[in-house]
Structures are given as structure tokens and as C-alpha cells.
Amino acid sequence: MKNEPRALLDPDRLFASDPAQRKIARRLYEAIEELPIVSPHGHTDAHWFSENAPFADPAHLLIVPDHYLFRMLYSRGIPLERLGIRRNDGGAVEEDPRAIWRTFAQNYHLFRGTPSRLWIDHTLSTVFGIHERLDANNADETYDEIDRCLKTEAFQPRALFERFGIEVLATTESPLDSLEQHRQIRESPWPGRVVTTFRPDPVVDPDFEGFQHGVRELGGLTGEDTESWSGYLRALAARRDFFRALGATATDHGHPSPRTADLDRKSCERLFAAARAGKLNAAQADEFRGQMLTEMARMSLDDGLVMQIHPGSVRNHNRDLFEAFGRDVGADIPARTSYVDALRPLLDRLGNEPRLSIILFTLDESTLTRELAPLAGHYPTLTLGPPWWFLDSPEAMLRFRRATTETAGFQNTAGFNDDTRAFLSIPARHDVARRIDCRYLAELVAEHRLEEDEALEVAADLAYHLVRRAYRLEHETLTS
Amino acid sequence: MKNEPRALLDPDRLFASDPAQRKIARRLYEAIEELPIVSPHGHTDAHWFSENAPFADPAHLLIVPDHYLFRMLYSRGIPLERLGIRRNDGGAVEEDPRAIWRTFAQNYHLFRGTPSRLWIDHTLSTVFGIHERLDANNADETYDEIDRCLKTEAFQPRALFERFGIEVLATTESPLDSLEQHRQIRESPWPGRVVTTFRPDPVVDPDFEGFQHGVRELGGLTGEDTESWSGYLRALAARRDFFRALGATATDHGHPSPRTADLDRKSCERLFAAARAGKLNAAQADEFRGQMLTEMARMSLDDGLVMQIHPGSVRNHNRDLFEAFGRDVGADIPARTSYVDALRPLLDRLGNEPRLSIILFTLDESTLTRELAPLAGHYPTLTLGPPWWFLDSPEAMLRFRRATTETAGFQNTAGFNDDTRAFLSIPARHDVARRIDCRYLAELVAEHRLEEDEALEVAADLAYHLVRRAYRLEHETLTS
Amino acid sequence: MKNEPRALLDPDRLFASDPAQRKIARRLYEAIEELPIVSPHGHTDAHWFSENAPFADPAHLLIVPDHYLFRMLYSRGIPLERLGIRRNDGGAVEEDPRAIWRTFAQNYHLFRGTPSRLWIDHTLSTVFGIHERLDANNADETYDEIDRCLKTEAFQPRALFERFGIEVLATTESPLDSLEQHRQIRESPWPGRVVTTFRPDPVVDPDFEGFQHGVRELGGLTGEDTESWSGYLRALAARRDFFRALGATATDHGHPSPRTADLDRKSCERLFAAARAGKLNAAQADEFRGQMLTEMARMSLDDGLVMQIHPGSVRNHNRDLFEAFGRDVGADIPARTSYVDALRPLLDRLGNEPRLSIILFTLDESTLTRELAPLAGHYPTLTLGPPWWFLDSPEAMLRFRRATTETAGFQNTAGFNDDTRAFLSIPARHDVARRIDCRYLAELVAEHRLEEDEALEVAADLAYHLVRRAYRLEHETLTS
């Protein structure tokens, strides 16, 4: 009786099983289920929407770009080559998408209890109409059905964007990007709102590969003299303007730590000169990055871009894999993070500026009650981003609300981000977040900590209104 | 149908919604609901009880002194001036209490999901008989009703103290305080038990504003030569005796970290001389504070005062606000804290002394299972204080019991502290703590980890007996 | 109506009280309840099984060896002498087992809410047929009944081993141990599988008492020249082989931190020479231990022994108690631990070796979502050990699954370890773990995150199959 045909998605999934709570959660969810998706932070490919070409095949759409999936398979001994991940040396990797798909299907049981399982089931069921749990036996049949779909117009990127009810989707680009795809999207008759995000790490982090080259290129793109500190800052401001003209409302910063600095001009010039010369030691590079966060905040005061700080990931922890396959192969590992002293220089300078908005993320849950909720529940400039990356999961989302609400409330949080490269998982991820928030609110109502009319307002805020306000994407005002 | 009239307080609030657990929780709560309130640690104003004058108005009673409330409002962009918080420069602030109250009422939705919401609702409902949820529409009506009450005898401080069922209430004073109010209270015919707590930070922390002046004043008050280390220690001992004579059973220490030291006499004398001369660097100031914790512990062995250590808060994190408004304006932020090495010098010297009692608090929940429960479950001198400050909330209280009970049990914890400046919130805060403890115990009973007759004993211990024992306020012995 | 006779063990204990979840939990538990016990990590005494002599008396069987019990009693002021713990100076301690038992029984209420309570109740009920809650009144009667049992053949070690359904039990020995008991067990006709574990701390940790003597002894035992680095490594490899011949499948490492190192040969030789001469400072000793973890991993690649790393305990925190009673008296306290940088040298060298298997443990729960689940969910060499020591309890086990499953899944975890010196608590501890895992799975099923047929497979994996695979104790393959 294993894996008999039955719906993959139960309508009550992720709600508490206590009947009193479940009933309330259902009512809250029904009221917000159909709200548009606002996706202000992610890593989808702008080419998809500018070109609107059909996706290649099931494996290269669903597995190869998703490091959540292949890191788990790798952890259980499956070489990345078998999953079609490109090697730097051009060495042989599995080229047959069906073979990759079969490997995945055979090992689908590894994802039990993980959010990947929820996302894939949701995608199979709601996007492709497949209602049987994936396994070795139905791998081929499932592959064929997805493949058949992908060849039809209804599964092209723009059609899916519309079907998913996406109101706005942000991608992330380097300041050196031409934003050509974004220009094309805006000039096309297609009404979908796809915007860019200004991610300056390649030209503000001296440890980034190609930093010096990038700084020179920045000069070329803007006509500024990026050999001088002031010209460098002007060049960054110019690119920010360019990004804003193509829809950007936010910047994003993936530094190793949230350290900030507020140095005098002379020190900045000295550090920048050494950075251009490749002569910073590790501590100086960290100080330079910290100074650049403060510079970016200062520019945000001028141009209104919302600032996102995503710290605490040790990138490319697995040396062998980095050498063989490069970045983003599932080997980034979070490390202990501290915000209280780290943010102080920036906050001392700009922490009470009403026009500045900084969204803080974390991979270190121990900071939630200790540092982040107290900071966001005090500083008018600070908002809490949603649970991120490894924490973008039902249990971690519940812990996030339980840890932050009592000190920072709901209005100091920024709604949900899907932060994904996996386009088809966007509805699934938002659905999980909405269900968990409704579940949390239902618990508050069932325990008489909040009344249901209030919970209904909050549910809509968490699903829709807060993210639009936090990312300055709104035209209307919040309902509450 | 928004905000229709209905009771603000459900009799089952904060109990789990599972019917089996809720039924048990109700029975436990009924058995302890009416026990007297023991409040051994707080920051109410002794003048209230010595003078027994009516409270001024709703805003200056309920909002202006409560940094939980105005920090949240400030985080959403409302200037402290609009809330009537005094500026250091005497600059203009809102003087009209009704205007302050309206601002609060208009923004009451910000507190959804926070303990402040529970406390205010409880106060409105049980103290003032107001049963409608506060909002912009009923702000004036609510204000008028509270104001009317405050003008009557039944709402004077001593009458409320009695109505709240407070058995004993501790305030907190500096060693330099004359304790005149406490003397008056004791000499008055009023039988209410209000005691002081010895908080020596101003004269043992070299970084405290006015430390040097304070040490000289300490000499003046005691007739000891506080220019010498031995005279300084004698002066502190003398003030402790004076505090004990006015009811103190405890000391309280709000150092940045729980660091302790156990230096030889020569080093102490050197450090103290440098402290008096204002010549300590940051590391030496920290060492001096650490030595003073050990000195205070040594004195506790002699005089029996219970020692409270409240570490881990970075005070006055917001520089602009500190300059404009001073201390205690909601800008203290917790930081990472470590106890294991920090307490070692003190514990090496006195950790097994049966007469010494130290109550440890934390703002860093990651220390609960890792450090604090193992320490308290071993050292006879150590007891765990209740969840404190940002953690004085339903979710954090539940996490506290789940994190500490399995290693330290119930008997190594110190019952509940309200730690508040907001006198009217005292019954509300104790009620939340009692409900959450009953809820936790009901869960243990429903899951057959404890039997109900035992849970009844524990519930009474947590609500009443343990705090009296921990603070040496009891006349009878514990029931269990 | 206090403590009236009733069954000590409810058949639904530890399952959630929500009826939907409880029903599923029961079905899962019924399916795995009777699976054999695999106990791959513990500290029982091999003499018990080689000699099979009757246990002495209730107190010396159940209380005196169990530091969980006497640390709690000590924390509430009961001197260790009253509990029969031997002093180093031979000073007087309680010798009468009945008196020790009475002290324990009088204070049994201290264990409310702790796992010790669950374990003792389970032992009394299932091993000795005692169904009344222990207290001062029934202390003697209970003592007599246990004592009566212990004098019968059915309660001798081998009989209990069989009655408990133990498939394999590992003890832990120093490389200097003769393993004589293990030889006797293997040569006896008794079919019980008792194996050893290679715990090299005494000869690889320069801070271990007697390290230099131990290294010389290691030379004597193996005929290698342990004055040279290469001879020392050969000697260790030889002892590993000897342990393997007596059934060992694993090594175990209890270093203060998980720090690893990967030094060149010259540096190793220099450090080792200084270690033998007793001339390492604290930092160098730490580096040497770190290098030895990498050496042990390298040897594991050759001989297939699974490596267990148990870091983060500050041993003998209570100086007075260490001087009076020695090690293992309940005064070890966990400290903050970090894995991400610490493991890097070892992982850079061997992290992708398919034949290497390292099981990581922690006492610092803040590392679970931040470091350990991401590491185990990526590196093929890493597996997560179960909640350990202070975390071997219902709440901590639940937190462990909630923290690790979403990122690392189930298959990167290593089943359960009881890690106990208290032989009679083994069935109780496995029962708690099985119940909590079933409860967690039931929650996933009730919330439609997993289907029940999958949960049944996972329940069997967690109770039985994963531990056999992780410790290379299996003959069959996993079902899933």
C-alpha cells in the first residue's frame, strides 16, 4: 500500500492539528491565500522574462540550479557530476536530463521533513498537475509529463509569472551589469513588473574576485575617476541612479559580517588606495567593507534605496568543491554573527534618520531575541527581514515569529522574501510562509492573545502589505 | 464588526488550546490564582508608598514611565517628544497628557502579539473596569474613565498595593540613598511591606557617571576612609547593614558582563587607587567590577543578603537619544553573554558555601541549556532568576521552563520577578507568569511526565514559595 | 489522595496530547517498540559482562554511579558524602546503601520534570515491577524489593542484557587498556555482543593527567618507539588494530573544542617533542589535539573506524569538588562551541572522502541550525550524533529534530546513543528517544508534511537502522 495515488497537497497542510487552531487558521488563510505575490529579493534570471523562451527540460529547470537539492544529494554520497553540475575544468558530467531526474527521484526520500520536499510537491501538483509522490517507479512518467508541459506556451516564463499572480519580482545584479534584460522587459509590451536590485559586493568588497578590475570598469561605465575615493563614491551613486531608473528600490549586501565603520575622509582614502593596490590585510578589508556599508547608507538617505544586509555566511567552505565547481554549490555554511557592536558606527551616524530604511537578515537564530528584535523594536531605521536561506522553512519561520513578535511586534518585520533561483518554487515558498504565519496567528487567537479581527489584518500585512512598504513598492497605504 | 464590545480578558487566555491541557491548566491556575504577590525585584518609586499621593494622570502613570511602550512607538517613527519624554536640554515636549494618550491609543495595534498588550489590557480591565479594546475612537472616553478613577481614594498607591494582594514589594536604591522614604513607610501605621534592595553599581562600577564623587560621598555617609581599599570595603559593609535595617534581603548588580575576579590584596589596592584617580582603562575597569562581585559575595556570606547578577545589557546603545534624553529610554540592547569562565573566580572561592545564595539572570537565551541550567543544577550557591526584561513574555517564559527544567529542575529556580517601573502592571505580569507556568505544568501532566498532585505543588512553589525562599522573605518553609 | 497506587508508566507518555497526533504516534511506536537496542556509545563496565556477578545493592547500582542524580541532590545542599561518593582522601562517606537510598527517596521530588525521573520510574516499573512513585514513605519497601531482585539470577548482568533486547553494546576504553574483559566476553560461550571503543584522549591530549607516562606505556605495549612522531603514530595505529580485533567499530574524542589542524611534518614533530617534554603552552596543546584529530581521521580512512567528536565540555569546573572527589562528579559544564572554522583543516584534507565517517556531537544547541545541520547536510563525511548529555531529554530531543531535519534530513543523523554509566537506564533512555521521535513524526503526519507510510520507515530508521549504519554495525542494508 506504499505510495498509492492520493493528493500530494492536503488543504490543511502546515496548520496545527488542534481542531480549534486549525479552524481559525483556515479562515485566516482563505482571506489572504489569493493576494498577489510580492517578491522583492531573489535570484531568478532576468533573461527568462526578457526572452520568454521555453525552459529546457525538467532537470535543468528544477534540479541543476537548486543548491538545496544537490547539497542534500551530495551529503549522501552522490557526486555532483551525476547531477549535471558543470565542472570548472570542463570534465565530464551527466548530460542526460532524464538520468539526472532519475537520480533525484530515486533519492527523493532524503528530503522527508525538509522544505524542499514541500516545495517540490507543491510545484509538481499545482504547476504540472502531478498528484503522485515522486519515487523511482514514477520517475520517467513524471519526467515525461513535465517535459510535455514545458514545450507549451502556458509554461513559458511570462505565462507562469502571470499564472503565479506575481505583482512584482526583483532580480539581483552587479553594478557592472548593463541591465540590458531589464531594459528589454520594460520596453516590451508585457506588463509584468520585474525590477533589479543593486548588489555592489563585486566593487565594494576587496576580497571579491576581480575587485580591482571591477573598480576600473565602474570608472569606465560612469565616466568617473575611480582611482580617487570621491570619484569612486560618485561612480557608485551614478550606478545606483541607473539601477533606480530600471526599477530598483533596494540594495543588497552579502558581507561576511554586519560590521560597519565610520572613518574620517583621510582614512577612507588611504584604505581605498590600498584596496585598489591589492594591499589590504584581512582586518583592513573588513574595515573597508564596514565603511562601505555606511557609505551605502548615506547614499540611501539621498536616493531612497532600501538597504538589505545579509551577513553571516562563510562562502565556499568546501575547498575541493570550490576548486572543482566554483561558487554556489551548496557549500556555504553560516557562522556565529553579532550585530550589537557591529552596527553601532552606522547607527551612531544615521540610526535615527526617518528616511533611511535598513532590512536586517540573519543565519544565526541565537541573535533573534538577544539582538535583532531589540534593535528593530527600537531604531526607526531598522526592520527585520524574514527567515533566510537555511531558515526559510516551517519550523524556523515559526521560531522566527515566536522569537521576534514579543519584542518587535509585526510592523517592524518586512513580510516574506523567497530569495530563490528556482522560479517554479516561488508560489510554493510564499504558500508555506502564508500558512505558517496564519498558523502562528491562529495560535494567538486560540490562546486569546489576539482577537480574530486583528489577526485578519495582520495576516494580510504579513502576506502583502508589509513587504510592499518595506521595499517601497507600494502605491496605497497599509490597512493597519 | 471591528472592535465590538466584548471582554478584554478571556478566562482561558495563555492556556494551550488543546482541551485536555486546558482543563488541567485551569485546575492548576484556580489553585494558585489568589496567592499573594511577592515582588522581590522592581523599580517602583518608594515615594508613592511613603506619600500615598494620587497619581497625576493616565499618560504619566501608564505611558511616560514605561520604556517598553515608548520604544515600540519610537521604532515606528514617533518622536519621544510627542510622548512627553523629558529632554536633557529642556526643549519642548508634549505636555498635554490627553494628547500623549491619543497618540498611544492610535498606535495600540503596534503592540499586537507583545506582552505590553497583555499587560495594558489586564490593567484596563481589572484595575479600571474598561472592557473595550483601546483604539483611536475610544481614546478620549478611556482617558476620562481612568482619570476619574485616579482622583478617588481607591486608586491611591497604598490602596492599590492592598487591592493587588502584594505581600512584599522591593524597590532598588543606590548605597548613597538616604532611604528616607523607606524609613517613613516603616514608621507609618500602614502595614504594607515595602523593602529596599542594595544596588551598588554607582559606587562599584568605575564607568558609572560620578563614581569618584560617589566613593567620597560613601565615606561621608559612613565615617569610613574610602580613600583606602579597606575603608571602602568597610563603608560598603556599613551601607549594606543600613539597607538590611530597612528591610533589604538582597543586593543587585547590573554589570555589563558576569565576569568575576579574585585578586590578591595588593592588586585590589592598586586597582582601587587607579579607579579613584579615574585612571583605569576599559580592561581594568572590567577587572575591578569583577573583583567587586567577589567582594559582594564575601560580604553576603557575613550578612546574608542574597546576590542578584543581571548582566549582558549594552546600555544607551543609541548615542543621539542618550545625548538628548539620557538613560532608560528603551535603547539598551542585550549582547552575547558567557557565564562558565566568567563566574569561575567567584565560584572557586565561594561556590560551595551553603550560606551564600546567588541568583543569575540572562538576556541571552542561548546560555540557558548550555551554561545556566548546568551551573544551577550543580552549584548549591546558584539559583536561576526568571526570564528577564525582553524575555518577560509568554513565549520566552515557556522557552525558559523547557530549557531549564530538564537539567536544573524547578527547585533551582527563583519564582517570578516583575522587575517593573509600571506599578499598575504588577498584577498583570504575575498573572501572565502564573498562567504560563500552569500551562507548562499542564503539558507535563497531559503527556504523563508528571502527575497532577505533583503539578499542584509545583504550581504553588513557582507562584509563591520559591520566590520567598530565594529572597529569604519567608517565615514558613516550603510545602515540598 | 497524594501518591495513591497507580501505574508509574502511562502507555501514551511523551506523546502529544492532541488526539490526532497521539493516535498516529501510537501506531508508529507500536511498529518500532520491540526493535532490538543498539547501544554504540556508552560507559558501562565491561567487568559486569565478563564476570556476570550480581550487582551489589540498590544504591550502588542506581545512585552512586549516576552523576545526573547526585549533581541535582548536591545543588540542593546535600553533601556528596551522604550519597556515598568516595573522597580522594579516604575521608568518611555514607557506607550504608539503605541510608543513601533513603536520602534519594526523600528528595525524589527534586527530579520532577527531569529525564532522570522518567528513567528511574521506567527502571522501577519495567525492571523491578514497582508501580508506586518513590517517596520517603515507601523508600524502605522499595529498597527491599530491588535488593531481593538483585540477589536472583534473572537480575545478573547477562540476563538483564538479554531481557533488555540489546543487540550490541559498546563500552569505552583507553588505548592503554588490556581489553582483557572484552577478550573474556568474546571467548565465553555467552552470545551477547559487547564491543569496545577506542578513546585515545589519555595519549593524545597533552593536558590529560599522566600523558607523558601514557605515551611511554603505549610504546611498551606496541614495541614502537613512541619517542618519535612516526613511532607514536604507528603505535596508535597498532592499538586501533587491537581494538578492532576486539570488536571496536569506532573511536571517540572528548576534546575541549572541535578544533582541528593540518600541520606539516616538521611542525608535528616539534609539537610532539614538546608535548613529551611537558613544555606545551595552552595554545600549543590545543593545536596538538587538533592535529591528532586529523591524524585519527587519516587512520580511519585506512582502518574504517568511525570517528566520534564530543566537544565543548569544561571538565571539573568546581575546583573544591575536583580536589575532594576527582573527575566525573557532575561538575562538567558545557561552554560555547564553534565548528565552522574549527573543522576546516580536517575537512579541507579529508572532508570529501567517501570512506571516512565522522559523527559530530554538541552541547551548544545554538550550533544546530547555524552550523551542524548545514555541515552535515553538505559534507558526505559528516553525520549528526543524537542530543547528548544535558540534551538527552524529551524537550531537547524534540528541539534537535526541529532544528536539524529541515536542513540535514533524517539520513544525515546517527540514531540514538544512550551514553550512560547506568546500565539499568538503557531501556528507559531508548524508550524516551523512540517515543519522542514517533511524536515528532506524528506531528509531521498530522500536519501533512509527511505521509504515514513514510513516517513508519523513518521511525524504524531512527530507532534501529541508522545507528547500525552510522557505526558500521550492520549486516543488512537499510530499508530506505
Account of the protein in words:
Three copies of one chain form a homotrimer. In chain A, 48% of the residues lie in helices and 6% in strands. Chain A has 480 residues and is mainly alpha-helical. In chain A, the strands form three sheets. A four-stranded parallel beta sheet of chain A has the order 4-5-8-9, with helices on one face. In chain A, strands 1-2-3 form a three-stranded parallel beta sheet. At the A-C interface, helix 4, helix 6, helix 15, strand 7 and helix 18 of A face helix 16, helix 17, helix 18, helix 19 and helix 20 of C.
- Average pLDDT across residues of chain A? 96
In total, how many domains does the architecture of chain A comprise? 2
Describe the global form of chain A. Answer: globular
Helical residue percent of chain A? 40-55%
- Tally the helices of chain A: 20
Question: Which CATH architecture of the largest domain in chain A?
Answer: Alpha-Beta Barrel
- The fold-level CATH name of the largest domain in chain A is TIM Barrel
> Largest interface by residue count?
A-B, 48 and 51 residues
N-C termini distance of chain A: 50 Å
What is the quaternary state of this protein?
A: homotrimer
- Total strand segments of chain A: 9
Name of the CATH superfamily of the largest domain in chain A = Metal-dependent hydrolases
Q: What fraction strand of chain A?
A: 5-15%
Q: Over the alpha carbons, how many angstroms does the gyration radius of chain A reach?
A: 23 Å
Low-pLDDT segments of chain A:
1-5, 476-480
